[in-house]
Design brief:
The chain is mainly β. The chain has one helix and 15 strands, in the order H-E-E-E-E-E-E-E-E-E-E-E-E-E-E-E. A twelve-stranded antiparallel beta barrel has the order 1-3-4-7-8-9-10-11-12-13-14-15. The longest helix is centred in the first third of the chain and has 23 residues. It is globular.
Length: about 280
């Protein structure tokens, strides 16, 4: 355990130092590369390498469901909420929760309650331009706020390290995330490592209407089976501060839920850096 604690402390200090250095850099964007007021990170697993305008407090809310699983549950439903704040063009902080969370096990017993909570930070390493993609690194820590005794969570702390690459080609945006997960073992002390990836495509049919698709997967981790998923969805920008989305998810491997549905909304709550006269 001491080795793991040292490893996490080192990673934490490295992320903190990197964030301070990155935040200290001054960006002078032109009107052409000024970030949008909001940049939704939902509904897929993959997140964009870059995010909303600095100072914008963005909230994402939705409904998520998965059905007909052969794994640890028969169906699962939750209402994910993510609060994302852009400190600068290079630094984003995020708070996520899956509350309320409801799970029916293979015996037919349903348990409901609070889900787990995640805290994260994302740093842009390189902004996208006409010749190269945007690149970023993110770290998320899962806090076990879900009740493990009722099967709603593992009761252990998890660490996610994510590399993000995004590129827009014409009307299509491609987002690639590569994930390294250190999950707290449910079967004993320590952490188990696994990998994952998500590749998403977004095509702008019009300025407001977008078609989205994604394939994502993860390897086996302790008691959690590996799985591969595909999603298809649409999003519509109502205003510059509001985007709605919806779609379906399909499990492509034997232990993954056969089908799932999602819908949600992204809202730009406020521009905290807006100058007041």
């Amino acid at each position: 355990m001491n080795r793991h604690i040292t490893h996490y402390l080192f990673c934490g200090f490295a992320i903190l130092i990197f964030s301070v250095v990155a935040h200290s850099q001054t960006d002078t964007p032109t009107p052409d590369d000024e970030p949008d007021f909001i940049v939704p990170a939902r509904p897929g697993v993959s997140n964009p390498a870059e995010f909303q305008r600095p100072g914008v407090l963005q909230i994402e809310m939705g409904y998520n469901s998965n059905f007909h699983s052969k794994g640890n549950f028969s169906d699962q439903q939750d209402m994910p909420i993510a609060v994302r704040f852009a400190i600068s063009r290079r630094i984003l902080i995020e708070l996520d929760t899956d509350t309320p969370y409801s799970l029916k096990d293979q015996t037919g017993q349903r348990n409901s309650g609070a889900g787990d909570t995640q805290l994260g930070i994302q740093a842009v390493l390189r902004h996208e331009n006409s010749t190269h993609p945007g690149m970023a690194f993110a770290y998320y820590i899962k806090l076990p706020t879900a009740d493990a005794n009722r099967g709603l969570g593992s009761g252990r702390v998890d660490h996610n390290f994510i590399g993000l690459i995004s590129k827009t080609i014409g009307k299509t945006t491609i987002d690639l995330n590569v994930i390294y997960l250190l999950a707290g073992r449910m079967s004993g002390p320590g952490h188990a490592s696994s990998g994952g990836a998500a590749l998403g495509f977004s095509y702008n049919v019009t300025k407001k209407f977008t078609i989205e698709s994604e394939i994502s997967g993860s390897s086996r981790n302790d008691g959690q089976q590996g799985a591969i998923y595909a999603i298809g969805g649409v999003s519509y920008q109502i205003t510059r501060r509001m985007v709605i989305d919806g779609g379906v998810r399909a499990g492509l491997t034997s232990q993954a839920p056969r089908v799932g549905f999602f819908t949600g909304i992204t809202i730009g709550i406020a521009d905290l850096y807006k100058k007041r006269h």
